[in-house]
Specification:
It holds the Pfam family EamA. Keywords: Membrane, Transmembrane, Transmembrane helix. Belongs to the EamA transporter family. It comes from Psychromarinibacter sediminicola. By secondary structure, this protein is mainly α. The protein has one domain. Helix content is 72%, strand content 0%. α2 runs antiparallel to α10 and α9 packs across α10. It is globular.
Length: 305
């Protein structure tokens, strides 16, 4: 597939993630963040494992659990802390710093050159998210700010390491491994930290199915596919599509107002995402731009059943 097709497919993931806030607030019981995160990750991961019938070899377990922690368990936990302690706009703006963190981490871990245009696009994108979401009521809570920055760093590390560690399996299998690992990491914290969920309504179940099957299994498969094919800086700035979708859904479905400043912010974010793709495009003939095609997997993929 062309690079443009890869970018568009990868951008679907953060665009769909923008529905998470709407689904969480409108369809799920409040006050169970760790439990809901585990229910989002573990069933989806186990379903994908059953579909792909591909288990990670023992030598990969450490990497898989580290990636599951960065991309899911730690990231989602810190995300909920930031969301509870900060206005949503400020939390999302801190999260958008992930694009800059990825550029720096990719330099250190992958040797990817730092391009001035990519840094500028990421910085402009952060400004656009701030205009889109931050209101006059924004207040700085130290714990919330630390959680927001930690969550951005966790997702950035997971993105870069997912590029660095590429097993010779499909993106769907790689997603299954990480989702399952992240859910297993969260499970003991659910038992220790939170009470049992109340009886779930049909709306609750529908919300969990959306977040698990679409918002986790399908979208992260697209995301990890993109991570393997597109430059890290180009992938990370696509994450700024999420707050744009969140604001759009709030305007269309919840009747929330959309001010001129927010409209300008959305336009800036979309412009930054476009500029980020151009700035991160590798020079023609750069053999390091894309990883080599994966060989046929030597792993044991047949699981009885």
């Amino acid at each position: 597939m062309s690079r443009t097709t890869d970018i568009l497919l990868t951008a679907l993931a953060p665009a769909i993630w923008g529905s998470t806030y709407l689904v969480t607030t409108e369809a799920l019981p409040a006050g169970y963040p760790v439990t809901l995160a585990a229910l989002r990750a573990l069933p989806a991961g186990m379903l994908l494992l059953a579909l792909t019938r591909c288990l990670p070899p023992r030598a990969w377990l450490g990497r898989v659990f580290l990636l599951g922690c960065f991309n899911f368990a730690l990231f989602w936990a810190l995300l909920f802390v930031a969301a509870y302690r900060l206005p949503g706009g400020l939390a999302a703006t801190l999260g958008s710093l992930q694009a800059m963190m990825v550029i720096l981490m990719a330099r250190g871990w992958l040797g990817t050159p730092i391009r001035a245009g990519a840094v500028a696009a990421a910085a402009v994108g952060v400004l656009g998210v701030a205009l889109l979401l931050i209101g006059p009521e924004a207040a700085l809570d130290p714990v919330g700010v630390a959680a927001g920055l930690g969550g951005a760093a966790s997702m950035a590390a997971g993105t870069v390491l997912s590029r660095k560690w590429q097993p010779p399996v499909s993106a769907l299998s790689f997603t299954a491994w990480q989702l399952t690992a992240g859910g297993l990491i969260l499970l003991p914290f659910v038992l220790i930290m939170e009470p049992a969920l109340p009886p779930l309504t049909m709306t609750n179940i529908a919300g969990l199915l959306w977040l698990g099957l679409i918002g986790a299994a399908a979208t992260y498969a697209l995301w990890f596919r993109g991570v393997a094919r597109i430059e890290p800086g180009a992938v990370s700035i696509l994450g700024m599509m999420s707050p744009v979708t969140a604001v759009f859904l709030g305007w269309v479905l919840l009747g929330q107002t959309l001010s001129l400043v927010q409209g300008i912010g959305a336009a800036i974010v979309l412009g930054a995402v476009w500029a980020g793709q151009r700035a991160n495009r590798p020079p023609a003939g750069d053999a390091t731009a894309r990883p080599a095609m994966r060989a046929r997997s030597p792993f044991k993929t047949g699981v009885s059943g």
